[in-house]
Automatic annotation (TrEMBL):
It comes from Salinimicrobium catena. Keywords: Coiled coil. Residues 389-493 form the GH3 C-terminal domain. GO terms for cellular component: cytoplasm. It comes from the Bacteria. One of its GO terms (molecular function) is acid-amino acid ligase activity. Residues 297-362 form the GH3 middle domain. This is GH3 auxin-responsive promoter. Residues 429-456 form a coiled coil.
Amino acid sequence: MAVIGSIIKGLLHARDAVISEPDPFEAQEKVLRGLLEKAKDTEFGKFYGFKEILKSENIQKKYAQKVPFFDYNKINEEWWSKMHEGAENVTWPGRPPYFALSSGTTGKSSKRIPVTDDMMEAIRQTGIKQVGTLTNFDLPSDFFEKEIMMLGSSTDLDKKGDHEEGEISGISASNIPFWFRDFYKPGMEISSINDWDERVLQIAKEAKNWDIGAITGIPSWTELMIKKILEYHNVQNIHEIWPNLQVYSTGGVAFEPYEKAFEKILGHPVIVIDTYLASEGFLAFQARPGTLAMKLVLDNGIYFEFVPFKPEFINEDGSLIPDAPVVGLKDVKEEEDYVLVISTVSGAWRYLIGDTIKFTDVEKMEIKITGRTKFFLNVVGSQLSVNKMQDAVKELEKEFGITIPEFTVAAVQKDGEYIHKWYMGVEGEAKAEKLAEALDNHLKEANKNYGVARQKALKGVEVVTISPTVFHEWSAKNKKKGGQVKMEKVMKEDKFAEWEKFVRSMTN
């Protein structure tokens, strides 16, 4: 038996035995009170009367009344931009030591999201909590002696005056404590390589020298990394290189669309653990087996609000209308989509992170990410959300025996009428016309509004099949490879025209 692993596992069990779960509602009120108290003397706190809110009998209700919703563009234009010019005490005391760069899924220019010392500590504490829950997954003792591959963005951060900039995965990795560095792969030297292809090549070269027990990273880029390792060593699956690989931890992206693709590159199943680490904070993680849902972290620097995900509350750019109703944590319902609104120890206030979620278990406070507010196709009333699209794509994979790890769709006009045009990254053989017919039928069954639209103004569905690598190259062209970059699932017509031009250049 692995002695050190047994000791570590025993310590984790002992830690869990003495730490009780906080009451979620009390924890959230305490978090909000702490946020308001610490930021009451900032410019933002003074402008919105945090001291007055703190005196209220119901601070959660008063807070929602006094402070408007902010998306990135609004809070950056009105507040965060002042920090870029050197101002202090803007939305949080002092100045942040980091800014997380996040191009997300919507364009070439990066968002610059403040990351404070308080947020770094919150991320660290949530990471410790997640490690503690690994004992729930019945892992053998020797797992706790294995190395962890953390596939994120470069740790070579860009120094800008008194702060550094990079993606949140790179910022987090650059702050790994010294005692963990022996477990951390690919190590600081390889992680600092900026060029993603070169970094992955170096990982492939060194792969046989490591005993990896767990991998963390966004599924699409993790898949590409593993394929590069297989190609370099001329093997069929990653367990030929890392026989002790037992856990894969995702990051902020649902794993289900990539499940079949991963089956082809693994020698045997691994435990998949979902995590929700965004540029704005570490929001949730999967705490138990038997589910892919994640437990919200309710007592560690992030205050949550929820807006029903309905077309009448969402502007075309994905922002919320000013008077959109808010559902409190006590009133959320299972299996209903909500727009996630957060306030954090990095000075984000009533901030739209851009994701939609649903509660799968209200008692356990467990959620799943269901899509993005901008990934919502509502031209001619189809009201099609990403989770419905992904469910339909999974049905196609089963029906046709193929793998579809990537797709994108737009509502476009053809002969003066609207159709939904899909591009699917397909591994395997299937006729596009048959895919379109089956996709249309699945969506009609799953979404009443879509069915009504198909009887009226939405005149058809068209599918184009391409190699999944085209999607990766599009990301490389428009943003960069690796890190937190995610493929946009829904495009506007002008962006879709650029996409189609790019596809033609790649396939001709």
